Amino acid sequence: MLHDFMANPHVFWLSLGGLLLAAELVGASGYLLWSGVAAALVGAVTWIMPLPWEWSGTAFALLTILAAWLWWKWLNQRVDKSAGNSALNQRGQQLVGTHATVLEPVTNQFTRVQIGDSSWRAICASPLNVGDKVVITGVEGATLRVEPEAR
User: Fold this and answer.
1) Do 121 and 142 contact (CB within 8 A), yes or no?
2) pLDDT tens across 99-134, in order?
3) Cα Rg of the chain (Å, integer)
4) Cβ 37 vs Cβ 60: under 8 Å
């Protein structure tokens, strides 16, 4: 069997590429994907233009390093772009700027406001009546800070 691999090195590289791609299906965060692609590329090149083992091994190593570096660079750009939303999973922060309706009279500066189909605890320094329209200006824990809408 070793003799067959020595006679047809492209079979080795294509097999290695297939095995690495299959192992990527288990979930290796993309690293084996690009190593498998590098092995498949080396296999295709050695099929078209036979290379000595030293050159094909070097080509595989360089292609794997290059692909891993490009993958890392692409992921970092992608993470930097998605990091702009600092209110992710912070429902109160996402509501800032939203308009709401007062549900209860203000007691000790606290009231409840309706947003969509839910009600939220709110704090407001201004006197408000039931039914008044307010805008959410901030969040203090799970309590919304509201101000009367400008008329």
Assistant:
1) yes
2) 999 999 888 989 999 998 889 999 998 888 899 999
3) 30
4) no
Specify whether the CB–CB gap between 135 and 98 falls below 8 A. yes
| pLDDT top residue among 95 and 8 | 95
Q: Copy the structure tokens of residue 9.
A: 């090195």
DSSP 126: S
Report helix, strand and coil shares of the chain as percent, to nearest 5.
50, 20, 30
> How do strand 110-115 and strand 118-123 relate by DSSP bridges?
antiparallel
Between the CA atoms of 114, 118, 121 and 125, what dihedral angle is there, to the nearest 10 degrees?
-20
Nearest to 137 by CA among 128, 127, 129, 147: 147
Quick: pLDDT tens for 28-65: 677 788 889 999 999 999 999 988 888 999 999 999 99
